[in-house]
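The records we work with from here on pair a chain with its fold. A complete example follows; check for yourself that the lines match position by position.
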Amino acid sequence: MLSTIKAVFQGIANYFGYLNNKQMLDAGAASVVATSLQEQANDLKVADAARQTVRADLAHNPDSLPNDEFRRAD
């Protein structure tokens, strides 16, 4: 009888250990995704700042843009 109770408690302990490990793995994966998304957001900010710089420069000095056949009409 005592060995059966011990086996049940050991099974419960193993199950909670499994849940803890799964939670840690899920938290690690979420951390990796969050870091990746933050890096992408930072890259987008850099790209947007570069676009704004070019737009401001062209608005200030529109003749700096070459006038060739490949220029878009917009």
Remarks:
- The mean pLDDT is 88.
- The radius of gyration is 30 Å.
